[in-house]
Design a protein that fits this description.
Elements (H helix, E strand, L loop, with lengths): L2 E8 L4 E7 L8 E6 L6 E6 L16 H15 L4 E9 L10 E2 L2 H8 L9 H14 L5 E5 L9 H4 L5 H4 L10 H15 L6 E7 L3 E7 L2 E5 L20 H9 L5 H10 L2 H6 L5 H6 L3 H25 L4 E5 H6 L1 H8 L11 H6 L12 E4 L4 H12 L1
Parallel strand pairs: 1-5, 5-7, 8-11, 11-12
Antiparallel strand pairs: 1-2, 2-3, 3-4, 6-7, 8-9, 9-10
Helix pairs in contact: 1-3, 6-15, 11-13
The protein binds adenosine-5'-diphosphate.
Adenosine-5'-diphosphate (ADP) binds next to helix 10 and helix 12.
Length: about 400
Amino acid sequence: MPDVILTINAGSSSLKFALHPVAAPLTPVLRGKVTGLKRAPEFSISVPKPAPAPVPVLDPSCTHEDAARILLDWLAEHAQQHQVVAVGHRVVHGGRDFTGPAKITPDVVAQLAALTTLAPLHQPHNLASVRLIADQFPNLPQVACFDTSFHTTQTPLAKLFAIPQELTETGLVRYGFHGLSYEFIASTLPEHLGDKANGRVIVAHLGNGASLCAMENGESRATTMGFTALDGLVMGRRSGSIDPGVILHLVQQRGMSVPEIEKLLYQQSGLLGVSGISNAMQDLQASDDPRAKLAMDLFCYRAAAEIAALIPAIGGLDVLIFTAGIGENSAQTRAGICDRLGWLGITLDASRNGAGDTRINADDARCDVLVIPTNEDAVIAQHTVALT
Ligand code: ADP
């Protein structure tokens, strides 16, 4: 029976999972997700296809913890040919103390629970699966892999907000997120870029959540998400950077409550808010409504502007990399961003971009532009193998 690592990635409304062989952690033997938690939950398997067994039908009231329990039962019944020897979790926030993956102990769980106020929409869901598995399988090793760890190498200035030091000292700094995705991309740079892998690289992780990371020597120097995953780029439903005065106005003049503002900025803004149609780039591309075009234009304009804004942290730009759902699949978005950055030496080859080649820059362009699929699960699996 081949040994496998179970990876669990609990998002705000989803739970993604995979089984990675210990002997070859890059390629999962099973991958799936539960989406639509709190609305219309759905369990699906993407690897292998077709699914090895019928998938459970979920009750609309299904919570993250229920979903994890149902997943464990389903795996016990239908994936018996694999022996789960450890579980690796994506944990959104590692605060200032966790600069790398950590083997989970009761002390670590307590430390992570104390960080819940820094990531209230994610951290409790991450810990719910950890606790459930610790209860059901007390001897199964578990490892936490943090979205924040990769960014501990940011420059001191890139981490700071211009607020009084006493607040900074309480942990109000720019942590950055999507670190497991950036770590995966950084690990592939030597194979794609040779010597340039250590050069000045910006990675654009454009999915439902979207951010940028400026790297040097394959390490993060600055990133667009900050204290929370709300900062930076326009996202599917999140506003990205916004004048803090807008929030004061909404409180003082419109009498909005904190939960209402949280919902506005996390759920009702971004591509969905601007278009009024959908949070998914694919839907907007298929629409001829001018509001869809406006939302896509704003997404591309702001991404280009934020790419430019990261350059002082690395002193120039040699390589731009696109990844995640939109970055990997939307040639139109890649063109919309790159067309605004010609002055940086970025020129696309339209046919390579349209064909989805790995290298999509024109031959005479000063800056390389690549499309590299991300694989956060593989990073979690590799760390879990290494620590258990
Ligand atoms: P997350 O993991 O943050 O939930 P993904 O990385 O899966 O998100 O990205 C989801 C986004 O990618 C959605 O906006 C979706 O519409 C977009 N997307 C996926 N496939 C395509 C495609 N072929 N063309 C355009 N956009 C796409």
